[in-house]
Specification:
The protein folds into three domains: 106 residues, no CATH class; 108 residues, PH-domain like; 55 residues. With 283 residues, the protein is α+β, with helices and mostly antiparallel strands. It is built from six helices and eleven strands. The structure holds zinc ion.
């Protein structure tokens, strides 16, 4: 196979990036919320009707009753709304890492997560690390309301960055699993490597095709300094060029879960995308 053909075939297989968005579920029973809301609405309707049309409440003594019914209905409806909604932000889990939607989107790439623990007292998953701008960030994901997100974070983290997952196996077994149909699946653009620093040499990537990206943790490397193993533990042998290594670089050495993710950076990147990446980096 000629070199250009090989490149073409690889570009076609370039992985797409995805993530899942999880909206917080109310911790309270859905049935309870519905019953309260229905009773509240019914009471408000009945009270209003009685106030304006009800003959039974015509005399002075009973005149006030419809008003009380309306008030009680309003209270019930209010309680239903309060129980039915939650203040927990939406959580995203996927190729770019773990993100929390609190007003704006703050994302922790897998390679910037330093520790994932389980807090038994609050039944929450605690994800600690740094966001994309390097600021410290701790995301607490409660099982109550975010069961699906907890399942996905634990599952992905154990596969991508097993070294920083500090949770007992006994606890992991009890946690929900990552359901295939959980959350809302979102397609993402390829990672923009231009402007990022090589994780091995510190050299800034100025030309997209020079970048090699670890498919597990999305660490970026310059093609000339790709190590044999990424800091996350993934084998990078299949990404190493002759520049970085001239003795034992072979494609057969790639780890089994890395074989489908070859050289994502070999996609053609438009100038516009590159400019956008640079812009993002400034902010
Ligand atoms: Zn990695």
């Amino acid at each position: 196979m000629s070199d250009s053909k090989k490149k073409k075939a690889k570009a076609k297989r370039a992985p797409r990036r995805h993530e899942r968005r999880f909206l917080a579920q109310s911790a309270h029973s859905k049935t309870l919320v519905r019953v309260l809301a229905a009773l509240g609405a019914a009471a408000m309707g009945a009270g209003s009707w009685a106030h304006f049309y009800g003959q039974v409440f015509a005399d002075d003594e009973k005149k006030a009753i419809p008003v009380y019914i309306v008030a009680a209905g309003a209270v019930l409806a209010g309680v239903a709304i309060w129980l039915g909604t939650t203040t927990e932000p939406a959580i995203r889990v996927g190729d770019p890492g773990v993100a929390v939607e609190r007003g704006d989107l703050r994302r922790m790439p897998w390679n910037a997560i330093s520790q994932i623990t389980w807090q038994e007292g609050t039944l929450s998953l605690v994800v600690m690390g740094r966001d994309e701008s390097g600021k410290e960030l701790t995301v607490k994901v409660p099982l109550n309301g975010h069961a699906e997100a907890v399942g996905w974070i634990v599952d992905e983290a154990r596969r991508r960055i097993p070294k920083v997952v500090d949770i007992d196996d006994a606890v992991v077994e009890k946690l929900p699993s990552a359901g295939e149909h959980a959350g809302q699946k979102i397609d993402l653009e390829a990672l923009q490597a231009v402007g990022k620093k090589c994780s091995a040499s510190g050299k800034t990537i100025s030309y997209e095709p020079d970048a090699r990206i670890c498919s597990r943790c999305e660490r970026v490397y310059h093609k000339a300094s790709v190590p044999k193993k990424c800091k996350c533990g993934a084998s990078l042998m299949h990404m190493r060029s002759k520049l970085a290594d001239d003795d034992d670089a072979t494609d057969d050495d790639a780890g089994d879960d890395d074989t489908s993710d070859e050289r994502p950076s070999e996609r053609k990147t438009s100038k516009r995308q590159r400019a956008a990446a640079e812009e993002e980096d400034v902010t």
